[in-house]
Amino acid sequence: MSHAYAYEYKVVTFRESLIGDALDSDKLEKTLNKHAADGWALKTITSADVKGRVGPGAVEGLLLTFERPRA
């Protein structure tokens, strides 16, 4: 059953490098614009510990939640 205003969601992990603690605003902007070009609108940004590429530890990062109307 399809609803007239159904949405779909996408969660993207934005992880910072293990070296340095500055948020890369240019990289974040490019990520947001890339998803916007595909019709995704940013719904929320959540700060979280996300899994790093190496080892069992986590690094600080962001979870970006996007939404768009379901086709």
Number of helices: 1
Could you say which structural class the secondary elements and strand pairing correspond to?
alpha+beta
Number of domains: 1
Quick one: biggest sheet?
3 strands, antiparallel
Percent of sequence in beta strands: over 45%
- In the sheet with the most strands, the strands line up as 1-3-2
- What average pLDDT do the residues reach? 81
Q: What portion of residues is helical?
A: 10-25%
Shape estimate: elongated
The first-to-last residue Cα distance is 13 Å
**Gyration radius from CA atoms, angstroms:** 15 Å
Q: Helices and strands, in N-to-C order?
A: EHEE
- Count of strand segments: 3
Which residues form runs of ≥5 with pLDDT under 50?
none
Write the layout of secondary structure elements.
Elements: E1 7-15, H1 25-37, E2 41-51, E3 58-69
Antiparallel strand pairs: 1-3, 2-3
Quick rundown:
This protein has 71 residues and is an alpha+beta fold. The protein has one domain (7-69). It has one helix spanning 25-37; strands at 7-15, 41-51, 58-69.
Care to describe what's here?
It is a single chain. The protein is α+β, with helices and mostly antiparallel strands and 71 residues long. It has one domain. Helices cover 18% and strands 45% of the residues. It is built from one helix and three strands, in the order βαββ. The chain has one helix at residues 25-37; strands at 7-15, 41-51, 58-69. The protein has a three-stranded antiparallel sheet, with helices on one face. The longest helix has 13 residues, at 25-37. The protein is elongated. The mean pLDDT is 81.
